[in-house]
Every structure is written in structure tokens, then in C-alpha cells.
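Action item from last meeting closed. Structure (829 res):
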């Protein structure tokens, strides 16, 4: 070819290195090279990685030799331009690398992985006497005569050697084998075996007739042809034969498999594979749009009015006010316009109930995206968004990464939920804030919904950055539940407690059950008891790897660390003094469930927490059983506070909320208010008899009054004053710098060194720490943290972030300090 001009591609790779990598695009790939397509490239010594083309150009890199792209995977972009923009924004906002964001964004089914394989060295001659070989080595050599290449697992099987690295190294050194990387495509399309008539019979009626005559005596074969023509009639053969029929269904009525085989052999039928969707083919279905009440209609048009002027609107509607119906109407409009919509939920726990309602309206136009789906399913949702198969996506935080190209609406339900924030690993992003940015990239409208908006969002609404729409009454004018407080100090003094239940709450439970209604009890601590305590020496069993006490789980008779998973059997004697007087202190959901079974022998008690809902099905089953009235009392952690909608719950009991109120964090009051209001909102959604009972040691705390009167505005006013006077969000932007190392002294020194490097330029008043966080050691790593508060308007926040990153890079130039991992957490929750 005469064209000698070279082409290069800048590739984004899923690695934590803050730059793009330039590779050469050879002539064979040039036609397919286009931004957004995935490529395979060599990386480092032996690795190959899946990356994404960001741009194509003709500039040779200055300081290194560009290696060649190995292959281009897609026939069209798998990543759209808007995603690349979002990835860039997230990397700079959340202080991580674009590669880390890409790694989180791509479902693992779209990332090829490589596997080490072994083949015989072409020059290898086992009889040249240059080396001697062990028995295991001979086994490998012999196996490679039979099979061209072997995986490490296969070698391990053949030789019976578990750790084969030594063996492979030795064979490689003797020049017997070569090691290479084989790429493995993780996504496997689902295929269906189908049957159709040979194409030659499609148009040739005479040939068909001849076939009938020929088969006259072959009853079973004739039957098959007849059946096929019943399903695909002769006059439709031209259009429909190509697609054929499912082989499984075709033979399902007991027709002969061997006769079909004969017909295939004789060139009458042919079998083929068709790639099918794991979610079924789209069906045409008329949508059943719910009727809105006149109040909902009014609010809907308020939202429309505000969207004329603002891109973001906050819908503040009390629990049970019917926000979902409004969402449905908005989604329907997006469908009518032929655009895309994203409906974000804070966690999978919520999806089942909402999905059922949405599916009634939108059928299979909804794609669902969350981590409990398999890799293959996630790839199909990804591709379905690209192809337009799923104009609506319902999903948890990672669905902000999907390849939308025509997004016109984002609904962020329960926008106050802290589970929208990803803690680990990078990017440590908040899906609500990221979705707002995603909306801006697409010029989409964004609707935030909550009964207890986050202080930040409400502040934005008060200052008219967002539009605000308020729904103050429940759907159908059902009353808000009545809330009562029980003073635990008083009850304990009078020795009236039944374990951890006050007589008032116990009585209310009994009464509710007598009326055939249901009860939810909220206890935000799983396990049986948060710790054990020796009555003789006061020893408390602690985790071997973390600075926390071990939680006693009665069901498994063991002590468990909730931070690292460390477990040990329940000790019969104190490990410090040998005493047998070991007592449990405090209580968790397990103990509450256990006590209730004794106190309410005929009641059907169940528990919903992390331990009982490990899989999607166990969770859904529990919800379904509760909905169907097969459970009387549901005990649960904060999982049960979130958006669930039950018809027959009339009593909600809140236990142990004091611990949440007094948790040392600036959001603790907000959290307590949200949790109590949300869980209270599960009571009496269809009746006027909703009742909430809160047990506390400090009934005089103002937050209880605010919950009782359902006074969000007053709560906000009190809270925002505190935030302003103590310099917390939304008045400042917080960044946490976390340091982790096994060496306690070193992590402290590293944090202090970093502090010194930023102190002067940033101003000491903006920096807190270094200090040990509440739990100073997790998984044998000691932690230190520095908190930086950047006031809005006083300092350029992007510049400050750049400065902090630069100082961190400088820190990591140092051999000693480099051993400590440093993590930025922007907007920590
Ligand atoms: Zn002891
Ligand atoms: Zn631990």
C-alpha cells in the first residue's frame, strides 16, 4: 500500500494511571477504528487489556514507541461520547483516574480477561540429552504431544501437583515450553437451537409436493413436516421460514427426534443457532397508565412548569403521598417522545416492589440493572440501552454508567439515601450527584424525590437552584400515623421491661395482632448481641484484625466481625480469665426476633437483615410473605425503612434509635430524622390507624418532636443553622484523605508528612487531623484521616483538588511513604 501515514489511537485503559495510552492502529484495523469501540491491547510485559478508543490521530508519541492494537472488538461504539464525558468529570471531581472510573463503568462481561496457557516450544527436542526431566515434567511434555496447549488448571490436573508455578518455571527454563496469554470473552450470548426448512424448499411448491409424496409411507417424518407447516403456513414460508421454530418447542409434543435427524440428513430441514435475549423478545402491550388524583395532577403540572425554567426539581412528598404515580406519568411522556429515561433507586432491596408497578405499565421496555444480575444479563441490558430495546432503565447507582445517548429524564428516588454513595473502591462517587451531572451532559430533566430530602438538596431548592414541589398529604387523604414516645429510663426504674421491649410497645404489638394487622420493628443492628462481656474480669472478645468487638450470632453459635468477616466459635469460658460467667450486652435483630418468639408464642415472627437476605430470591420471598400476610411481625435493620409499601402494617416500633442520634457525625441528626420518618411511613398507608412507638432514653430530644409532628421544614431550619455555624455541607465541600498501613507508626508519620505539605498553601483552618477514625484498625490496617473543608466561594475547589492530588503524587515519590495507601473521599457520607 502506498499510504505510509501511520494512525494512532489514544486508549482509555481500566488501570489506575491518570493518562491515556497511545497505540498504533495497523492497516488491517484502520477501517474499524472509531472512538467508543473496545480494543485489545498489550500492556506491560505479558498482559493484555480491554480498553476504549478515545480518539484517532496521526501523531506519534514522543517519548515511547507505540505498540500495536491487537484487535478491535466492536462493530459499533460500545461506549458513547456522553459516557466518556461523564468518566472525565467523575475522575476529576472524585479525585481518581479515568481508568478507575472505566473499570467501574464496564460490566465485567465487556472486559476480556486473559488466561495463561502453555504450548510446546517449537525447537524443543526431549531426546537431545541437554536436560533431565522429573516425572511431573514428563507428564506435561507428553500431554503437549496430544494437545496443542494446556491451561494451568489442566497441568495441575495432569500432574496432580497443586502449586504448578515451580514446575512451569523449570520447564520454561529448559526450553521445553512457551507461555502465552489466551483471551477469554466473558460475555456468552444465549443461544437457541432452531429448525427451519431448507431454503430451496421455501419457494418451490413443486418440490414440497414431491416431498409429501416421497414421505407418504414415512409417517413420523411426514408428521414433522405437517407440524412445521401448521406453524409456518405455506403462504408465509417466504417471510417466516428464515426464522424457523424453536427445536425444543417443536419436538415438545412428543415428535420423533430421530426422524427429525433423518430429515436434516436428507436436506429437508436444517438446524441453526439463534442468539436470543435473556429477557425475552419485546412484546407489544398497551400501557395501563394509572389515574392521578386531582392533587397529583396539579403537582405534575407544577413539575412541568418548573422544568421550563430549571433542569432539576425536588419533589418533597410525605410518605405514602403517591410519588410513584407521578413518576410513571413522566416516564410515559419520555416513551412517547421516543427518548430514554433512567429511574435510580438507592439499592436493590427496593427494586422488587417498584418494578412490579412499573412493569404493569411499561411491560418489557424496562431494563433492570444491578449487581445481583449476572454478568451476561448486565451486558444484555447495556446492549439493550444502545439498541433502544430498553428505553427505560431502573437501576441502582452503577446504572449511571450505561450507554445512554438520548436521555431526557432522570428520576432519583429516595434521593436522601446514603447508599447512593460508593465507599470502596474508587470512584467513591455519589450516584445522585453523578446523575445530576449526567443529566446536564444530556440536557435531560432531573427529578429528585423524597419524603425526607437531604439537607443539601433542600438547601438547593430553598435557594432556587432546584425547583421545589411539595406533596403534604397522603394519597387518598389517609392520615399520617400517630407517634408516641416511651421513656425507657422510667420503665427500667420500675423494672417493667420485657427484655428490650417496653410494656407499652409489647401491648401495642399484641393488640395489632389481635386485629389481624401487621407490625414492623426497626432495630438497626444485626446479630444477637453487639458484644460479650465477662462478669469477672470485664474482658470483651475483640476481632483479631480490627479494633472492634465481635458480634454474637446465636443462629450460627459464633462471634463475627462485621468489618472483616473474621469469625470464631462462641467461647464457653472467658479467654482472659477462664470464668464461665459470660454475658451478652445490648441486642440486635436476632435477639429481638428470639425474644418475640417467646413473648408471642402464636405470632409469626420473621427477620429481614443482611443475614437473612443474601440473595435476590430470599429477599423477594420475605417481602412476598409479608405482603401475603404470612408474617405478623417483621423485625429488621434499616433495610425495612426504605420505600416499601405494605397494605396491612398498622404499627411500627422503633428501638434503640438513641445510638443513631448520638453517633459522633455531623449527619447523625439528619440520619435519625430520616430513618424514623421513613420507617414510620410504613405504618397505616391504607388506613387511618397507623401508629408509631419510639423507645428512647431521652424523650426530650427535639428530633422526636419533629418526627411526631412530621415537621420537615422545622427540622431543616434547625439543621441548616448548625451546619452553617459549624462549617459543614452544604456550606463547605468536604474531602477526606484516608491513610492505611499495617504499621501504626508509619501511617501516622505519612499522614503528618502530607499534612505539612498542604498546610501552608491551604490554610490550617481548613484542615482537621490527622486523627484516628472511630475504628482505628480494620483488616490489620491502621487508619489515619485528614479532613479538609473547602468553603464555597472562598477558594477554587477544582484547583484545591489538583493541589491535593499533586501533593499526594509527590508523597508517593518517597520510598517509605509510598508504602502507605492514600485515598481521597470527596463528599464523604
Ligand atoms: Zn474474664
Ligand atoms: Zn475484623
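Sequence:
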Amino acid at each position: 500500500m502506498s499510504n505510509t501515514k501511520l494512525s494512532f489511537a489514544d486508549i482509555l485503559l481500566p488501570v489506575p494511571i491518570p493518562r491515556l495510552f497511545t497505540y498504533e492502529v495497523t492497516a488491517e484495523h484502520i477501517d474499524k477504528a472509531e472512538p467508543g469501540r473496545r480494543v485489545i491491547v498489550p500492556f506491560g510485559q505479558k498482559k493484555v487489556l480491554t480498553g476504549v478508543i478515545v480518539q484517532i490521530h496521526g501523531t506519534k508519541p514522543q517519548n515511547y514507541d507505540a505498540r500495536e492494537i491487537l484487535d478491535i472488538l466492536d462493530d459499533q461504539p460500545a461506549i458513547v461520547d456522553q459516557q466518556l464525558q461523564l468518566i472525565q468529570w467523575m475522575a476529576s471531581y472524585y479525585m481518581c483516574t479515568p481508568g478507575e472510573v472505566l473499570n467501574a463503568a464496564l460490566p465485567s462481561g465487556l472486559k476480556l480477561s486473559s488466561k495463561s496457557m502453555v504450548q510446546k516450544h517449537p525447537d524443543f527436542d526431549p531426546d537431545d540429552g541437554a536436560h533431565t526431566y522429573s516425572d511431573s515434567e514428563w507428564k506435561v511434555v507428553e500431554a503437549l504431544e496430544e494437545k496443542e496447549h494446556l491451561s494451568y488448571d489442566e497441568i495441575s490436573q495432569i500432574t496432580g501437583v497443586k502449586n504448578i508455578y515451580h514446575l512451569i518455571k523449570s520447564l520454561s527454563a529448559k526450553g521445553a515450553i512457551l507461555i502465552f496469554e489466551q483471551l477469554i470473552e466473558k460475555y456468552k450470548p444465549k443461544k437457541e437451537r432452531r429448525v427451519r426448512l431448507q431454503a430451496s424448499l421455501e419457494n418451490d411448491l413443486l418440490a414440497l409436493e414431491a416431498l409429501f409424496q416421497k414421505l407418504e409411507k414415512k409417517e413420523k417424518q411426514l408428521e414433522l413436516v405437517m407440524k412445521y407447516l401448521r406453524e409456518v403456513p405455506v403462504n408465509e414460508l417466504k417471510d417466516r421460514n428464515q426464522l424457523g421454530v424453536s427445536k425444543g418447542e417443536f419436538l415438545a409434543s412428543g415428535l420423533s427426534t430421530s426422524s427429525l435427524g433423518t430429515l436434516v440428513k436428507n436436506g429437508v430441514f436444517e438446524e441453526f443457532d439463534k442468539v436470543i435475549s435473556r429477557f425475552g423478545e419485546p412484546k407489544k402491550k398497551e400501557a395501563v397508565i394509572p389515574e392521578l388524583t386531582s392533587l397529583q395532577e396539579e403537582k405534575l403540572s407544577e413539575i412541568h412548569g418548573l422544568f421550563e425554567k430549571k433542569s432539576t426539581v425536588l419533589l418533597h412528598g410525605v410518605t405514602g403521598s403517591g410519588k410513584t404515580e407521578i413518576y410513571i406519568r413522566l416516564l410515559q411522556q419520555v416513551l412517547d417522545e421516543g427518548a430514554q429515561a433512567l429511574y435510580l433507586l438507592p439499592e436493590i432491596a427496593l427494586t422488587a416492589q417498584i418494578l412490579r408497578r412499573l412493569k404493569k405499565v411499561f411491560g418489557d421496555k424496562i431494563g433492570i440493572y444491578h449487581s445481583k444480575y449476572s454478568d451476561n444479563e448486565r451486558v444484555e441490558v447495556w446492549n439493550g440501552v444502545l439498541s433502544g430495546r430498553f428505553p427505560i432503565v431502573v437501576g441502582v447507582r452503577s446504572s449511571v454508567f450505561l450507554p445512554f445517548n438520548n436521555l431526557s429524564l432522570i428520576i432519583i428516588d429516595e434521593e436522601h439515601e446514603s447508599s447512593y454513595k460508593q465507599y470502596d473502591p474508587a470512584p467513591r462517587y455519589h450516584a445522585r450527584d453523578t446523575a445530576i451531572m449526567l443529566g446536564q451532559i444530556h440536557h435531560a430533566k432531573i427529578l429528585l424525590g423524597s419524603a425526607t430530602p437531604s439537607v443539601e438538596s433542600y438547601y438547593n431548592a430553598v435557594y432556587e437552584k432546584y425547583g421545589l414541589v411539595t406533596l403534604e398529604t397522603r394519597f387518598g387523604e389517609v392520615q399520617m400515623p400517630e407517634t408516641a414516645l416511651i421513656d425507657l429510663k422510667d420503665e427500667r426504674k420500675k423494672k417493667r421491661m420485657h427484655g428490650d421491649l417496653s410494656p407499652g410497645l409489647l401491648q401495642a404489638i399484641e393488640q395489632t395482632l389481635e386485629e389481624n394487622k401487621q407490625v414492623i420493628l426497626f432495630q438497626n443492628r444485626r446479630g444477637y448481641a453487639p458484644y460479650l462481656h465477662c462478669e469477672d474480669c470485664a474482658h470483651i472478645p475483640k476481632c483479631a484484625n480490627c479494633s472492634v468487638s465481635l458480634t454474637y450470632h446465636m443462629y450460627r453459635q459464633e462471634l463475627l466481625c462485621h468489618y472483616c468477616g473474621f469469625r470464631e466459635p462462641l467461647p464457653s469460658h472467658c479467654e482472659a480469665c477462664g470464668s464461665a460467667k459470660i454475658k451478652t450486652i445490648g441486642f440486635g435483630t436476632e435477639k429481638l426476633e428470639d425474644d418475640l418468639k417467646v413473648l408471642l408464642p402464636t405470632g409469626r415472627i420473621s427477620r429481614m437483615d443482611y443475614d437473612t437476605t443474601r440473595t435476590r430470591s430470599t429477599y423477594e420471598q420475605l417481602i412476598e410473605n409479608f405482603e401475603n400476610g404470612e408474617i405478623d411481625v417483621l423485625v429488621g435493620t434499616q433495610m425495612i425503612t426504605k420505600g416499601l409499601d405494605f397494605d396491612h402494617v398498622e404499627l411500627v416500633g422503633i428501638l434503640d434509635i438513641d445510638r443513631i442520634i448520638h453517633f459522633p457525625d455531623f449527619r447523625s441528626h439528619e440520619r435519625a430524622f430520616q430513618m424514623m420518618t421513613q420507617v414510620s411511613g410504613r405504618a397505616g398507608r391504607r388506613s387511618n390507624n397507623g401508629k408509631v412507638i419510639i423507645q428512647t432514653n431521652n424523650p426530650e430530644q427535639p428530633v422526636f418532636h419533629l418526627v411526631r409532628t412530621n415537621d420537615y421544614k422545622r427540622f431543616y431550619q434547625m439543621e441548616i443553622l448548625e451546619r452553617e455555624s459549624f462549617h459543614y455541607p452544604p456550606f463547605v465541600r468536604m474531602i477526606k484523605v484516608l491513610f492505611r498501613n499495617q504499621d501504626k507508626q508509619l501511617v501516622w508519620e505519612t499522614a503528618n508528612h502530607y499534612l505539612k505539605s498542604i498546610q501552608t498553601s491551604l490554610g490550617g483552618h481548613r484542615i482537621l487531623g490527622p486523627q484516628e477514625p472511630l475504628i482505628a484498625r480494620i483488616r490489620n490496617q491502621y487508619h489515619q484521616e485528614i479532613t479538609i473543608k473547602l468553603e464555597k466561594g472562598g477558594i477554587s475547589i477544582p484547583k484545591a483538588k489538583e493541589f491535593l492530588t499533586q501533593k499526594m503524587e509527590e508523597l508517593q515519590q518517597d520510598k517509605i511513604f509510598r508504602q502507605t495507601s492514600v485515598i481521597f473521599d470527596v463528599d464523604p457520607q
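Note appended to the action item: The pocket of zinc ion (ligand 1) is lined by residues 534, 536-537, 539, 574, 576-577, 579 (CB under 6 Å).
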